[in-house]
Amino acid sequence: MATKSVIRNVNQHVGETVTIGAWINNKRSSGKIQFLQLRDGSGYIQGVVVKSEVSEQVWEDAKSLTQESSLYVTGVIREEPRSQSGYEMTVTGIEIIHLTENYPITPKEHGVDYLMDHRHLWLRTQKQRAIMVIRAEIIRAVQEYFDTNGFTLVDPPILTPTSAEGTTNLFHTKYFDEDAYLTQSGQLYMEAAAMALGKVYSFGPTFRAEKSKTRRHLIEFWMIEPEMAFTDHEESLQVQEQFISHVVQSVVKNCRQELETIGRDISKLEAIQAPFPRITYDEAIDFLHTQDFDIPWGEDFGAPHETAIAEKYDKPVFITHYPAGIKAFYMKPDPNRPEVVLCADMIAPEGYGEIIGGSQRIDDPQLLEERFKEHDLSMETYQWYMDLRKYGTVPHSGFGLGLERTVAWICGLDHVRETIPFPRTLYRMYP
User: Fold this and answer.
1) Contacts of 194 (CB under 8 A, 6+ apart)
2) Separation CA 358–CA 360 (nearest Å)
3) pLDDT in tens, 171-204
4) What angle do CA 12, 18, 24 make, to 5 degrees?
5) How far apart are CA 163 and CA 160, in angstroms?
6) pTM higher than 0.90 for the full model?
7) CA 58 to chain centre
């Protein structure tokens, strides 16, 4: 009797007869032999049907199979060095589950809009599957890093009465008779959690009602937001570079086949090892002026500026000490130069832009109160946040990593829409 298996585990069954539930990815025939390209979600394998070695029924069933038809296929696993997986199946039996007709996504080229309309099916393609596997590995490695370095996972609320950075780009809704917003960051709540647990991180969906159509933007995306008590700006930067190094090297180690499938230059990822280079905002401005960018001091960087800076490096680069006027109200001023704050953006190489933003937070209650007034923020709404400084304030720092931008960079993708199973973009909420 055949053993039930999945393609990923066929290396454990060489010489044995197994049954696999699969779909037909593609097939071809050379007269008296049919080659079935099988996929089951865990991997790909070729099934070889030899006419002289199977019953007429099995041969005819194999002939009838169409792209994305589903079946149980039984056969003997053997090593095959020429195949991508290193194994092949000599088919002895086929049980058809469903024959598919007129499958919408064929091996020919399709436009992006067409593929996005059929995202539920596009996910089945080899490249899209590989991206999702890499995304899952990134998530696993993120949690592994924090879980093994003394951090506690904490879940901040998705519905909030206000915002970490103002409500301009937030989705507004009603919480019964009160105004509420879909969160764009759990950071303020994570600061509260850090005062209880020391080192914490959150991992969840965030929403930004930003009418942006760039290749780096999604409306719904996932954020990883660590917060650390008794941690200064310098210590936070060290955590960030060690964290990113761990995630990238985990992908290189555990997803090499998927990286090869999507055509990623793995040598560029192998070079991502801490420490990372650092430049100040002032140095970045000076450099941009040498590159003929007309950008005054005090203005934030856009994608072209970040790309020009990143091109100097083969690793992510920190840009530190931005002007206070272009950063969030909670960032701690540099004691030696109060017009800039103790913050950093981590810019990924190869033109992928900012993947991390972080800072040391203001821990002085008087200074934070002044910031509330400067930014015209409601003391009543933020009273709980003020309490964190009123009752046992400590130096603390944190940062936020955008998952989808990180997936785009590690996979070398042209657009962030391929980094999440069902992207929500400015003009798309289907499927």
Assistant:
1) 200, 227, 228, 229, 396, 398
2) 7
3) 999 999 999 999 999 999 999 999 999 999 999 9
4) 105
5) 7
6) yes
7) 43
